[in-house]
Each structure stands twice: as C-alpha cells, then as structure tokens.
Amino acid sequence: MSAAFNVDVAIIGGGIAGLWLLARLREQGYAALLIENAQLGAGQTLCAQGIIHGGAKYGLHGQAGQTAEAVAGMPDLWRRCLRGEAAIDLRGAALLAEHQYLWATRTPTSRLAAFFASKLMRGRVEKVAEAGMAVDHYPPVLRHPHFHGTVYRLDEPIIDVASVLTVLAERYRDAIVRHDGPALLPADGHLTLRHTDRAPRVIQPSMTVFTAGAGNAGLPWATQQLRPLHMVMARGDHLPGPLYAHCIGASEVPRLTVTSHYDAQGRLVWYLGGGLAEAGVHRDCDAQIRVAREELQALLPWVDWHPVEFATFTIQRAEAHQPGGGRPAGFSVFREGQVIAAWPTKLALAPLLAEQIETVLHTLNVQPRPIDFSPLADWPRPTVGVYPWNREDLAWS
Ligand SMILES: Cc1cc2nc3c(=O)[nH]c(=O)nc-3n(C[C@H](O)[C@H](O)[C@H](O)COP(=O)(O)OP(=O)(O)OC[C@H]3O[C@@H](n4cnc5c(N)ncnc54)[C@H](O)[C@@H]3O)c2cc1C
Questions:
Q1: What is the CATH number of the domain that holds 349?
Q2: To test the ligand 1 pocket, which listed residue (44, 156, 216, 246) has its Cβ within 8 A of the most ligand atoms?
Q3: What pLDDT is recorded for position 67?
C-alpha cells in the first residue's frame, strides 16, 4: 500500500450536506476530501422536492418556532449563491421556480390555516390578490373559473437539485472520490479507500465528518431516526402545466405538496409529497396511486386525470433521533473525538450545517493547509445520480 494521504477533513457521503461542506471547507482553504460509495445525491438529496423553505410551511398552525427562525434566511442565501454573489458559487445551477404557492381550498379549516399562515409569517407570505396581483398571477391550473379557493405566494424558491450537485461536483472534482468497499469507519484515525480497479489507499484525516444520511447509522454514539415517505409522481401531456404549491388542509402537514420537473424525455412530471406521502407509508403502490388520483380529482376536479400516468416509491428521511420521533427543529451535529456525524434535516439547511461544522473545526484548532490532490488524480470519481422520475425500475400505470 502507498503512503497515507493526509487531509484535514474526510467527508463521508456526497449528498447535499457533504458536497456543500466540501465546497465551504475548500473555499476556506482546508484540505478536504469527499468519499462517496454510490452516486452523488443517491440517498435523499435527488428525491427532495427542491423547495428552499423560508419557514412558512412550518408556521401553518401557529408553530413558528426554532425551525422557522433557522430557515428564514435560506431563500435569500440560496438565491445569492445561484447568482454567484455568495461564498459558494452556484452559477450554472438552475432555479425551477421563484416561488412556491400555498393554496387553500374552501373548507373552513384550511381557510383558517391559510389566514394564520399569512399573519404569522408576515413578509414571507403574500396573499396573491392582496398583493395587487390578479388571478392571472395564479399558477395556471388554479386560474380555472371553478377554483374558488385562496392563493398565497411564499418566499420559497425551488431549485433544480441535480444541477446544484453537478456544479459542486465539477468544481471540486479533484477532491471527490469513489469508495467501493465495505462501509468506511475510521480505524485508529485512518480510513482505507477501496476500489475494485485500484490498490487500497490509506487516508489519514485530522477529522472525519459523516454526512452519509442513512449511512450515518454505523456510528453507535450518534443515533438516528428514519421517517418514511411514500412519494407519488404523475406524468404526461395531460398535466395542466407546471405547479409548485402546497395545498393546505386541516393538519400541520400540507395535504399535498406539488413540485414540477421534466423527465429525460422532456415530459412534465408532477412530484407529489406532503400529507399524501406521509399518510401513504402503509399503502402499497396501487393503493397509493388510487388515493393520489382521488386526491387530485377532489382538489382539481376540472382536470381530466384519466390519461395521466402515475408511479410511486418509498424513501426514508434520515435525521438525528428525537424523543417522540418527530422532525428535528433544525440540523444536527454530534461529535465523538475526531469524528462528527451530521444531518441537515432539510436540504435547504445544508449551508447552516456546513457553517456549524466549520465552527467545530475552529474549536478543535484544525487549521487549513494547502494540499496537492495529484496522488489521487487517477482514482475513480462518482457520478451524479438520477432523479426518481428517470429511474428505470419504476412501474408507471
Ligand atoms: C421525498 C423527500 C423530499 C424532500 N424534500 C425536501 C425539500 O423540498 N426541501 C428540503 O429542504 N429538504 C427536503 N427533503 C430533505 C432533504 O432531502 C434531506 O434533508 C437532504 O437531502 C439530506 O442530505 P444528506 O446529504 O444529509 O443525505 P443524503 O442525500 O441521503 O446523502 C447521503 C450520501 O451518502 C452516501 N453514503 C451513504 N453511506 C455511505 C458510506 N458508508 N460511505 C460513503 N458514502 C455513503 C449516499 O450514497 C448519499 O450519496 C426531502 C427529503 C425527502 C426524502
């Protein structure tokens, strides 16, 4: 085996948390190396709806607590990154939409919820009509004469997640490597990087940061929880244009959260989460599709849903364990010795998570130093994974 390769920080896992941390540490001059054992974004990140939450969704039912405060600045930060005006330069990555909408049906409970949301979040929610905008500013599908609900516009951009991963992966390519072997765990302070085509390589990091999502489970001192979702996708020419909106109902979770994407064939895809995905975890695919059709028929009855094709898949949200099993109020960072375990909880919070980890490095006096990555120049690199609507193993019906 060749001599150990010394780095300041080894990052295990290349979802949004690991890639953002790599970018931040590299920009600060740290010798940081990211190790991925599958494809970049292959865990939760490419399954995310890409909404950069500004806190409005969490304020729906009067619970504008710690989470809302933590996320309030994220839409602005991400927009500045996308324009190349912040420390992490995301120029080249795309915004799918400037705003997420919030739409309330006519039932009293959901109207009430929308009212409270608008009061609670003040500047972060605008009622579309009151903001001087006519109905023609509604999302296209809600401009129908049979729609009598209320529409709010949230300060929540929607990003094209894969484009963000691609920009980061290309910019820091020299520092991103593929590992094919068993799950990496630090042994006596070092990691052994393996690939079927290469001789093993020992990496000697000052610190190891696990941003491996569900793969953080290997660290017994940092317990995690997994919360499932049963997501639904609808595709085809019969969809009534793109929609980015939460439909709010009676509960704390939006009844339905819709984002819109285009698949590899250029077809429009509605990606459906929210209450439908949470309540659907005990349904099989057919039952979940049936409920999705019923829900869309109930909420948007003027659309012909028969020709629209549907597919579903389940995915676990990996987060730090919470007593009671609810969603953590923000990101989570744990440390034992020279190892950190981190979960962003939301894709939108990856910048805050990276900032916190950098603070821990300062506290531990880990100093940035120059590095020459050429000894790893020939090491295989992971590619960016695929969106769920482009997966070939899903059955559409
Ligand atoms: C359906 C869904 C929708 C969501 N929508 C949103 C949204 O709209 N907005 C939002 O802000 N958040 C959203 N989230 C949450 C968000 O996706 C996650 O918080 C975020 O993507 C987690 O990123 P991560 O990098 O920590 O983990 P992951 O994305 O899971 O990445 C972990 C990476 O580590 C790799 N890995 C695992 N084990 C190992 C190992 N042993 N060695 C090396 N590599 C390893 C994996 O292959 C993967 O690439 C959503 C989540 C889900 C599931």
A1: 3.50.50.60
A2: 44
A3: 56
